[in-house]
Amino acid sequence: VLLHAYPAYPAQIHGEARTPEARIHRERRELGVDHALVGGVLARRWGLPNSLATAIERHHSDDAEGQAAMVRLADMLAHYGHDQAVDRNALLQAARALAMTPAGLRELMYSLPYAGNGKRHVDPCPLSTRELDVLKRLALGKVYKQIAHDLELSTSTVRTHLHNTYAKLGASDRAQAVLIATDRGWL
Question: Are 106 and 27 found together in one domain?
């Protein structure tokens, strides 16, 4: 419907918006309506149950619950599975709305089939090669002294690399740094 009503849809309407959330905001700003609302209206016109129409029109709402939350999470996972950017915080929020733990979400995401060449979108790693080498060894359970020996560095240099890593990732400790890097596909 939007494609027929607006010849510039979606390319010019979405512009540089990368995530589903950014695209929906562009639609609302540029068109005064978004595809979710239009989908809900169409579902009602076709005589589909009101609960389904509501789930469709509310699937981009931050406070989506029940069926709308399921559609929201499924939509984000579909984008992710097709190598498109997804807002990590919005994805976690959608999973929480369905009482899914981050571990459960991660398991679900890694079990998805991949589109095209099988690669998923991974944000660029902010860590230097050396910081990543140190973090990989930390993820294996090694202590500073073992890491220093493996990489032929001093223990204080290893400590400095890890403190820089924590700062770049916004992590408070080694476990959190390893989890963040693993979640983002850098380890």
Answer: yes
CA–CA separation, 102 vs 134, rounded Å?
Answer: 25
Residue 120 in any domain: the answer is no
Backbone φ and ψ of 7, nearest 5°: -55, -25
CATH code (residue 179): 1.10.10.10
Same domain, 9 and 95: yes
Give the DSSP H/E element, type plus range, for residue 16. none
**Domain of residue 153, residue span:** 129-183
pLDDT in tens, 26-57: 988 988 888 888 888 998 999 999 999 999 99
Higher local confidence (pLDDT), 139 or 157: 157
In this structure, which long-range contacts are made by residues 138-144, counting pairs with CB atoms below 8 Å and at least 24 apart in sequence? Answer: 138/162, 138/174, 138/177, 138/178, 139/178, 139/181, 139/182, 139/187
Residue 84, domain member (yes or no): yes
